[in-house]
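Two proteins, back to back. First:
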Amino acid sequence: MKKILLAIIVTVLAGCASVVKVEGDQIVNNRLKITVAEAWNKVSVPGTSQPFDSWTQEGLSLDHLRFWA
């Protein structure tokens, strides 16, 4: 029963993640400037404070890039 409840919670939270397309020059955490040659997607979960930015092009399970700044 606990595993089913956990799976439901994870699924609901994954659906709440926001995805924003990023291109060109980007500033990460007001510390790091990145020049992006191709479009990437910045993924973040609302209501959380993470010390990194998560980016992907094809989905988090295929490619996942984290910038710690």
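And the second protein:
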Amino acid sequence: MAIESGAGTAGEAAPGCTDDLAYDVFARDCPSRDALKHVTDRWGSLTLGALLDGTFRFNELRRRVDGVSEKMLAQALHALERDGLVHREAQQSNPPRVDYALTPLGDQVARQLRLLIDLVEDRMPQVLQARERYDARHLTE
């Protein structure tokens, strides 16, 4: 496991993490938990998935991620940029232009998310059937 600068070396616990792992998402205070939260929350994962298609301006991205508010998209982009997954480039033009794209790390993460997104979409018939069975059992109680 490669550790980024400032975090120690493999086998050396990062601040807030357990002694067994350099980063442990199951440890309450480990910084990896926040990174996982940013990647897996609804708007973070959809934003990363959308950015796999290329560079977007803010409003283009907002249209692609249907249902996201300006505020929530801005928060997701800020968190993903801070985590090194998204690159924000402001162009000096009139009107001002800001482009968002995946970093190399963001591309790696987004590709893994895309596999999960594809799996969920492919398995939706089974999910919907399971929901129907669950609802039928629990609505009669």
